[in-house]
């Protein structure tokens, strides 16, 4: 497979979505990240992709949030069925064309219909779970209890001040304009676009997580190296494209 260098990290998408196939709203997000050696996770990525790195390091992410207004086509999305809590465990990838992306190792969600649609329609590892997001002032508590296989997560964060200019690492972890997924034995890229992330500093007050290890990833050792919060963005997805070459 011929590879090219990874595309530049940009605060807005380099590939605008012309014909939206799906819309979502990502709200009240917390981004928790730990560094990991690329060779430890390379075998967990779809064929034809490799770990995306910054200064030789890649990252494992735990991202709880509130999904709003999920729907197919250009929108506006479903107000009830399209609104639910979600927590994803993720890795970072780059394909042979240099497109940076996200690889989801698990996605816990509280609505059964979106879970089934995600699993059957996009081959994403959605799991039906009990979740709750509770906010008291500037403190948010996210809880997740997976029905089967059993796993749980609880994170408590305090929202800090807005970030005027994100660091290179903060851009790397959040400015992602697509995802890679194994689709019927092939690897596919699904592009997305949204406004520039409004990011805030955040303080992790408490964390008790079993989702990262349950996803087959190295259990986090020590506190995350990056803790961010965002009020959220509205997202549009484009058309899925199969990679031409496999690894």
Task: Give keywords.
247 residues; mainly beta; nine-stranded mixed β-barrel; 4 helices; globular
List strands and helices in order, with pairings.
Blueprint (H helix, E strand, L loop, with lengths): L21 E15 L1 H4 L7 E3 L6 E15 L11 E12 L4 E10 L2 H11 L3 E11 L2 E8 L4 E12 L5 H7 L3 E6 L2 E8 L6 E10 L1 H4 L11 E12 L3 E2 L5
Parallel strand pairs: 5-6
Antiparallel strand pairs: 1-3, 1-12, 2-4, 3-4, 4-5, 6-7, 7-8, 8-11, 9-10, 10-12, 10-13, 11-12
InterPro entries: ADC_dom_sf (IPR023375), DUF2071 (IPR018644)
Protein name: DUF2071 domain-containing protein
Mean pLDDT: 93
Strand content: over 45%
Neighbour order of strands in the largest sheet: 1-3-4-5-6-7-8-11-12
Q: Which structural class do the helices and strands define?
A: mainly beta
- Return residue spans where pLDDT drops below 50 for at least 5 consecutive residues: none
Level of helix content? 10-25%
Principal-axes shape call: globular
Largest sheet: 9 strands, mixed, barrel
Number of helices: 4
**Cα-atom radius of gyration:** 17 Å
Total count of strands: 13
In whole angstroms, how far apart are the ends?
Answer: 7 Å
Task: Give me the strand/helix succession.
Answer: EHEEEEHEEEHEEEHEE
């Amino acid at each position: 497979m011929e590879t090219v260098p990874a595309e530049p990290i940009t605060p807005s998408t380099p590939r605008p979505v012309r014909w939206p196939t799906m819309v979502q709203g990502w709200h009240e997000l917390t981004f928790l990240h730990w560094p990991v050696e690329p060779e430890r996770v390379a075998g967990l990525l779809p064929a034809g992709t490799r770990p995306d790195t910054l200064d030789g390091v890649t990252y494992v992410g735990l991202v709880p949030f509130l999904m709003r207004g999920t729907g197919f086509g250009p929108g506006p999305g479903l107000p009830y069925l399209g609104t639910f809590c979600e927590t994803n465990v993720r890795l970072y990838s780059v394909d042979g064309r240099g497109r940076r992306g996200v690889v989801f190792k698990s996605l816990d969600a509280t609505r059964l219909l979106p879970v089934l649609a995600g699993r059957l329609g996009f081959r994403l590892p959605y799991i039906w779970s009990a979740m709750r997001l509770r906010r008291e002032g500037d403190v948010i508590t996210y809880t997740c209890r997976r029905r089967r296989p059993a796993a749980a997560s609880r994170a408590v964060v305090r929202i800090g001040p807005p970030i005027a200019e994100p660091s290179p690492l903060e851009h790397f972890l959040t400015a992602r304009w697509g995802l890679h997924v194994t689709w019927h034995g092939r690897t596919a890229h699904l592009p997305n676009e949204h406004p520039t992330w409004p990011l805030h500093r955040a303080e992790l007050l408490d964390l008790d997580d079993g989702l990262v290890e349950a996803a087959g990833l190295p259990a986090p050792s020590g506190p995350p190296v990056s803790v961010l919060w965002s009020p959220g963005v509205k997202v549009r997805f484009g058309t899925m494209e199969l990679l031409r070459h496999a690894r």
